[in-house]
Write a structure and sequence with these properties.
disordered C terminus; 5 strands; about 15% strand; globular; five-stranded parallel beta sheet; alpha/beta
């Protein structure tokens, strides 16, 4: 797996927090296929993902297997946004909580299953993703 932690970043920087190894591998592979110059760091725990995000002054997208409540409680959304990045949540809890009252639509995107390479690439190319040619905006 092609990942970076200490080297200077070239191109977009993505963080993937996925508890399932196959999902983690797929998301990393899709990101690298989308942009071979990208730096992608795969994480297996929330503390590791937070450390990866904190290690970089700029972040493009954080793919997090978390629900909106846990993301907000941990402050990960604020941390990602402070580095110019977008939060993409996925998994059972993200899908379940996305439709509940109090869900702050716009603070993050929920990647619904089954997802495809094309749907992930669309998120990587979306406006507001640091390190892409797409215009920034909120």
């Amino acid at each position: 797996m092609n990942s970076t932690t200490a080297a200077p970043l070239r191109g977009p920087f993505y963080v993937v927090l996925a508890f399932d190894a196959i999902v983690r591998h797929d998301l990393v592979g899709i990101a690298l296929d989308h942009d071979p110059a990208a730096s992608v760091l795969a994480c297996t725990s929330l503390p590791d993902a937070i450390a990866a995000i904190e290690s970089s002054p700029v972040l493009s997208v954080a793919f997090l297997e978390l629900g909106p409540r846990r993301t907000a409680r941990a402050g990960v959304d604020t941390l990602v946004h402070s580095r110019g990045g977008r939060v993409v949540l996925f998994g059972d809890v993200a899908e379940d909580e996305a439709g509940t009252p109090g869900f702050a639509a716009g603070a993050w995107t929920v990647l619904l299953r089954p997802f495809t390479s094309r749907s992930v690439c669309a998120l990587l190319s979306a406006p507001g993703v640091a390190g892409t040619d797409a215009p920034r905006g909120r």
